Amino acid sequence: MHQRRLTDAERGLLSPGLVAALDAAGAAPVIVPRAAWLARLTWLWRGHVPILTRGHKIYWPGAPQDFSSRPAAMAVLQHELQHVLDFSTGRLSALGYLLNPRNWTYRLPEIWDWNTLGAEQRAVLAEKLWRAERDGGEELDACRSIIPWVADCGLASPRDDLHQGGQTRRI
Ligand SMILES: [Zn+2]
Q: Using CA atoms, how far apart are residues 31 and 37, in angstroms rounded to an integer?
């Protein structure tokens, strides 16, 4: 199997704001269907070869040519794409990830503040949003209100629409 870009079906299923943010950042995510060397190394003590993202490359052992028919994998894909976005916008570097232990925490704090969350926490929220968009649930509004790229995809609140409408009229 060869490395590949996202398929149209995958792009269509991801949260629209994330796709828009990736495009705006000029990110061209690539899925590499094998383990990264770092993941192979950690296999020695972790016992499994994890999915690992560095820059725009998502190393995903055994990744198929399309994830769109696999909801569980799509949620993980959205998680990894948050990392790609962070790398693209300069918020995250491979060294920065390793040097800041806050980046390794997957557990979310009591109060979600996008600016103070670590890399994995941001990715966990992106993944949560994908699930909540399908299952509904009380976390949907919380996810939408905290993830900045959600606002880029036409999900802005009616008040924002009104505000923008007002500006348009003034012009
Ligand atoms: Zn992650």
A: 15
Of the candidates 54, 69, 53, the one whose C-alpha atom is nearest the C-alpha of residue 10 is 69
**From the CA of 38, how far away is ligand 1's center (Å)?**
14
**Span from the CA of 155 to the centroid of ligand 1 (angstroms):** 25
pTM for this model (two decimals): 0.84
CA of 53 to the centre of ligand 1 (A): 7
Q: What is the mean pLDDT of each run of 10 residues along the chain (171 residues)?
A: 94 97 97 86 67 94 95 96 96 88 88 92 96 90 94 53 34 32
> What is the 120 CA–ligand 1 centroid distance (Å)?
5
Distance 83 CA to ligand 1 centre (A): 7
